């Protein structure tokens, strides 16, 4: 349990103190429910009444707020009470994450794994042979880290992340619960008798620094070589990245999108939710793919597409609008046909 | 191992007993494979021969079935043998679930977690600090329950459910294997140098009573405040619910649908499989979204939509039908052009 | 740690040996980074320089490659260095998988579970009551195997696979990490007061031999009876298979596709990524469904479909192409209208 005084908190949020600077708090609470030892805030004047009755030890309040009654809590006066509170809460959670360390029992750490300083390995985590985990990284409960996996520094693997053998994860990476890295790519060679022979998937996945990956996403290992997730890429939940795909720096992919095998995605690309990209094509830097689009051809630099099959964004919107007017277009054709018929018959 | 006599079972399925009312069974079996101590049924006369040779101790049979030979099993005569058997099987599984209790070892339960009566905590489950679990709830193996999570009564978390810190789950809730509750929302602020700065996600997820959630679904925590799943909501497998979404009472969402951030969904809404809903819109009570639709605008009360982008269901069906006839429409336009050309030239 | 000599490796890849046939290796490395005791290869002449300085003990090289300097490593000369190396790596990984055996601690194996010869049960795996696991099968860490589940021989369950009670998995099956087998089907009966009453799901899932299933896929148990995945089926990642579905022999389904309840899929069917199939229809043998299609009607034998709603592949492509030309079609209609107007007025 960490404890902070008003005097310690004030500089973090550029606050001025009204009351006892030595007043200390250990946790957060809503102003109407807070107990002694808690930090709270008042942003909405609708809740003003609670300010005068709250049991919170410290309350964050805006400079402009004028007290109508005496207040027992120590006040931290700031420009924006809400964002100051949120910012403290965030710092607190980061501190909490940073304070996690040590190897919780029971867990399984192979005797020849190498684990850096201040690393946390949660209960029921499995760390295989020759694994290397850099300093300050946090491996939450139920993670599986296969043989020969390398993990950088300050990386966080949330509960139940599964990383198959030989894969590499960089530093400052965050991977959310249930995500699978390095499962076999989907490759089968049809035999003459109709059976499907598995094509061995002997590559790996490399995830560079500062990548964040959402929950229950899957990234398959390469057939040979590496599936590559470049620096600063952000992937949402439930995304499928197939074998031998490469995703370029700072590209953002929204939930439930799928990228088929061997496709190369450039830098700063944006892919909307539930979009699908076929295999073996290239999305050049800055390309934009609208949600639910089905991309079947390469996209040049900076170009935006939508639809299935996807093409130029503005043209596609125009065609989509017209397709809603199809009943009207058909009616107009019918009218023309009828007029023409009359014209011809009366000719 | 629970054991039931014919006399105990009969009132549960409104059966009359033929044979020994003290005959007891402990498990279920198919009539052709059953062993002594098992309960079986005959619904399909195709299997009648097995009735006379079965080793089952009790057989459920319809009132109308006329025996042609003597039967050694005790008979429970009912109106519909199949549904009586299914109903007993269901009661049995509920009893089995209810009979699970105690803390299986090895598991990890924080010393300051509070666990109610008759709670089951399976092997390899992780229960964090200040967690509260209400009576009769069942936490199956490999579940992760983060710090300060609250779980109500009679709730079942199947194997491998992950619930991040601070989230709340109500009573009579069922969550299936692999589902993730409370992962970070997908929010990043682009910096001038192209890097993407993570926006802290400091809210939580609140799941109210009587909700059921399928397998490998993901529900992100709110940026600030709560992602809300209201009472009686039913979510299928592999669904994505983004941060700050609200899903209203008794709404049903089918598999692989995705709801983007801050969208509000009313009561009794029905969303088909693989549908996608953009962020920051509202689906009013009773709205209906067809499977695979892409909803980009708010939907008024009770209205049905389909297509991508989705609009009025009946109109969209008419346009979809016409879009199949586009080759024919184009041919008709060509014919008109050719006739007009002739008309003008002969004029 | 396994060790192999050049003489042992040569026949596996039809190689001839240049150098010491007793030279031994225990692992693999890139030619520019390899250390003594490692096996490497040179396929791309761009890296030729490393051949003369490498510390690898054995290097695989093509017959046609002409040395320009002396080489310290023992050489294995083959037709294609790259595929020979890949083939050895694959054999090695299969050996490694096969060499896994024994029950790693801590794990939970019910005293009345039956476990065959050479079975591996990883740390934190849970094996329930009356489970039967056939010989040589590998249950990786964090797997959950519910009561009465049966698993065949030579089957591999990767980390975190969850198999609910009563389900059956055949032999030579591979299931990737995070996949859930046997979760409840999605069935609710609306009550007069708007509440949704759960329909008990008391069937199971049966997975036949030689099936491979990707990561984080979900297969629901049948309401009554069995959800069936037939012999040789290959399912990719993040797929949804609903209750009572049947998937026929050697059918292939790509990532993120979804099959709704009670649909029957024949043999040798191919379903593209993100496709959705409604419930209660039939896809006959050899049907082909394009990626992202929405199939709402049964498909006859061998027929290919695309689009949402899906219909004949070639016709749909023609209509899709024309829908892009809708602005042009509308312009042509406008022109016709204007000409007709002139014709009539000048008449």
Walk me through the structure.
Three copies of one chain form a homotrimer. With 347 residues, chain A is an alpha/beta fold. Chain A has five helices and 40 strands. A twelve-stranded mixed β-sheet of chain A has the order 8-11-14-17-20-25-28-31-34-37-39-40, covered by helices on one side. A ten-stranded parallel β-sheet of chain A has the order 9-12-15-18-21-26-29-32-35-38, with no helix packed on it. The longest helix of chain A has 21 residues, at 326-346. Chain A is flat. The termini of chain A are far apart. Chains A and B meet through α3, α4 and α5 of A and α4 and α5 of B.
What are the SSEs and their pairings?
Three copies of one chain form a homotrimer.
Chain A: E1 4-5, H1 6-9, E2 16-18, E3 24-25, E4 27-28, E5 38-41, H2 48-51, E6 58-62, E7 74-78, H3 81-99, E8 102-103, E9 108-109, E10 114-115, E11 120-121, E12 126-127, E13 132-133, E14 138-139, E15 144-145, E16 150-151, E17 156-157, E18 162-163, E19 168-169, E20 174-175, E21 180-183, E22 188-190, E23 196-198, E24 204-207, E25 212-213, E26 218-220, E27 226-229, E28 234-235, E29 240-241, E30 246-247, E31 252-253, E32 258-259, E33 264-265, E34 270-271, E35 276-277, E36 282-283, E37 288-289, E38 294-295, E39 304-306, E40 311-312, H4 313-324, H5 326-346
Parallel strand pairs in A: 4-5, 5-6, 6-7, 8-11, 9-12, 10-13, 11-14, 12-15, 13-16, 14-17, 15-18, 16-19, 17-20, 18-21, 19-24, 20-25, 21-26, 24-27, 25-28, 26-29, 27-30, 28-31, 29-32, 30-33, 31-34, 32-35, 33-36, 34-37, 35-38, 37-39
Antiparallel strand pairs in A: 1-3, 2-7, 22-23, 39-40
């Amino acid at each position: 349990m960490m404890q902070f005084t008003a005097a310690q908190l004030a500089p973090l949020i550029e606050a001025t103190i009204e009351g006892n600077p030595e007043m200390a708090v250990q946790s957060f609470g809503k102003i109407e429910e807070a107990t002694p030892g808690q930090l709270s805030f008042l942003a909405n004047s609708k809740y003003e009444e609670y300010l005068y009755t709250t049991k919170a030890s410290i309350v964050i309040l805006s400079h402009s707020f004028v007290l109508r009654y005496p207040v027992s809590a120590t006040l931290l006066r700031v420009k924006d009470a809400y964002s100051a509170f949120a910012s403290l809460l965030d710092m607190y959670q980061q501190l909490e994450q940073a304070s996690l360390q040590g190897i919780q029992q029971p867990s399984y750490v192979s005797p020849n794994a190498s684990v850096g300083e201040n690393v946390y390995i949660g209960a029921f985590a499995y760390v295989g042979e020759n694994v290397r985990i850099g300093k300050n990284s946090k491996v939450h409960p139920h993670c599986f880290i296969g043989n020969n996996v390398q993990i950088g520094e300050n990386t966080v693997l949330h509960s139940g992340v599964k990383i198959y053998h030989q894969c590499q994860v960089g530093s400052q990476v965050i991977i959310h619960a249930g995500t699978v890295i390095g499962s076999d790519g989907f490759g089968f060679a049809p035999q003459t008798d109709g059976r499907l022979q598995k094509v061995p998937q002997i590559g790996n996945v490399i995830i560079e620094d500062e990548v964040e990956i959402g929950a229950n996403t899957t990234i398959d290992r390469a057939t040979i070589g590496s599936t590559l997730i470049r620096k600063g890429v952000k992937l949402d939940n439930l995304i499928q990245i197939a074998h031998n795909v490469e995703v370029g720096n700072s590209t953002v992919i929204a939930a439930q999108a799928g990228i088929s095998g061997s496709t190369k995605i450039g830098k700063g690309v944006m892919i909307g939710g539930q979009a699908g990209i076929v295999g073996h094509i290239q999305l050049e830097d800055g390309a934009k793919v609208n949600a639910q689009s089905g991309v079947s051809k390469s996209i040049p630099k900076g170009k935006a597409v939508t639809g299935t099959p996807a093409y130029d964004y503005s043209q596609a919107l125009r065609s989509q609008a017209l397709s809603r007017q199809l009943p009207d277009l058909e009616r107009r054709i019918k009218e023309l046909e009828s007029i023409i018929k009359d014209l011809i018959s009366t000719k």
